[in-house]
Amino acid sequence: MIALMKKNLRLWGYGKAAALFIGCLLFSLGERVNGVSCYQQHILSAVSDHYYLTYFMLPMVLLSAFSFLDDDGEPVILRFESYHRYFLQKWFGTGLVALSLTVLQTAAILLSGIGLPSGNHWELAAGTIERELFSVLQQSFNTPAQTFIACTFYQLIGCWMIFGICTWINHFAGRRWSVGIIVALYLMSAVWIKVSAVQSLPVTGFNHLLILHHNLPHRLAVTGITAALIAALMALTVRFTWRRQLPHLQVRGRGIVAYYLRQLMTRRNLLILFAVVTGMTLSKELTGGFLQSGAEWAYTLFAGHGTGYFQVLPFLELLITTGAPLYLLAVFTEHSVSDQSIFLTVRTGSCKNVMRGILSAGTVFLALYALLWLAAGFLGAGPSGYKMLLYAVLMKFLDMLLQFLVMLAVYLFTRQITMGFLVLLAGNLLCMLQGAFASYLPFGLSSLARISLLESAGGISAVTALCIEGFLAALFLIGMFALGGKKVLN
């Protein structure tokens, strides 16, 4: 274990240590300029500044963790007789790095307060910005000095716990996935102090493990129980399932459709779809606290962009939610058609079978994306919004299917996938046109802002919009089945 400790310290390096000390010293001196006037109050203010802890200390902890996340080679692990013993000792050994981080921070904070008069009490001058924080802390501690020690010790344990969680995630998820997961967990912690809706979520983030007063006065038990459960889960999984990796969707079966589905249903593609749906849903949830019913939630989630005007953010949202799967399908289509060989055509029987495989795989891919939106919508839509949600998801699917078919047709005739994207972009930009006819344009018709569903909403009727999208999607689908195969090998 001592060898693991030395290796972790070597991988951590002196550069991160120097950066932490200098950064903490600068933040602490900034607290001294406009902060409290007593030494004990100053060091407490510095060690509990959640802006410093969230936007500097926590990133430094995570950056330090990435230095030694990867497992050692099999010869090293074999020395410990089993993987779980190796993992537990490696995790225990990261405590030395956590201790180094804490000692450097403490030294910088204590140094920054030199020259201030002693004052181990809670009284503050009127207008001091730490008044609200101190009023919370003094409910649990007697003096600022005692609170400083408690906060420092809590951060030591929190750093060590975060190191273990990151190492555990990296082992089971791999380097590429662990980066995304850890960054996502950090972003949740970063917005926690800014967004009240996130603070109400019943989850424990990295900030709760590192910042003591984020758990006060009533959340400390929840964080402690959560940390204990995570530690138990880590111990059990590295003991009994340490060889397993994160599951991924495997498309089984034979034939051209299954072959193309395996190319589409990759971890990367599914992660992109999930990220788009999750990000947009959270954005709507955080900005839609005024919504009174499930129908309003569904309408807001799928509002999109109306006609006769142009607003940047709604239009960008429409492009992202619709364009993300279409971009993935464009990459898949170009690869499938441009790399087409006569041998694959012979094995599948005809070019029509190749086209059938591309169309079937693309349709299933879009249907899966629509189901993700349906699942996300159910989180906020009550019984009053289910009907509108089902309609909105169906329209979203038909809109994307029609645009996919148009993009595929343009590509087959021009051999330029960029040209297909430009056609889709131009079609969606037509929403700026004035006049009633603009409401009937098929591109972007899944935007509920263009459909008359709520009393306050204008636009064409829901049945008319559904008929337009359904008829055009069916027409293009039949046309591609009948004529598209002839263009595959051109």
From TrEMBL:
Keyword Iron-sulfur carried by entry: no
Q: Which domain of life is it from?
A: Bacteria
Question: Which keywords has UniProt assigned to this entry?
Answer: Membrane, Transmembrane, Transmembrane helix
What stretches pass through the bilayer? 51-70, 91-114, 147-169, 181-201, 221-242, 270-292, 312-333, 354-376, 388-413, 420-440, 460-483
Keyword Magnesium attributed: no
Q: What is this protein called?
A: Uncharacterized protein
Q: What does UniProt list as this organism's lineage?
A: Bacteria, Bacillati, Bacillota, Clostridia, Peptostreptococcales
